[in-house]
Amino acid sequence: MSTTWRISSFNGALLAAYFIPTWTMVAFKIMVAPIHGLYERPNVSVGLFISDRLQLAAITTVRVAWLLALGKLMVVAFFALFLLFVARASIRKTGGADEALTMALVIGSAISFASMVMASQVGEMQALRLHATELLMLLGAAVLLVVERPAEPHTNRMSADDLVFQRSELLRH
Hints:
Layout: H1 7-32, H2 34-38, H3 44-54, H4 58-87, H5 89-94, H6 98-122, H7 125-147, H8 160-172
Helix pairs in contact: 1-4, 1-7, 3-6, 4-6, 6-7
């Protein structure tokens, strides 16, 4: 069983185990109470940046909060799709789940990077550490995905020596 798991698939499954419950709870808190959810610990840097630097109106702040929740739920959906694909050994061996993992990594990295920059702008050090850690986890998985080549499907190809032997047989008959 351990020989059928690629390291990027295993790493993606571990990332999914972290991001699916964490970002789902954060997104649902924003959906239930947008302003209150925006000022929870995982999103406090975004909330402070929007209120202090951009000085948006309350309804615009609610819209930005919903957009953040939508982005996090998209990452959760792509990680869940990746886990569904990884469950099948034939898809896992050929690297067929890499597209879903790539989309989760790209969107998640963009959200984490933007949140990290906003945290550094408003001086929220704990949020900066959280978003930097999430960004490093996502970028590490992206590096593994780029470096690791997909497994080659096993085919019954004949070598050049087999073809030469068959041609010489045909010439004798």
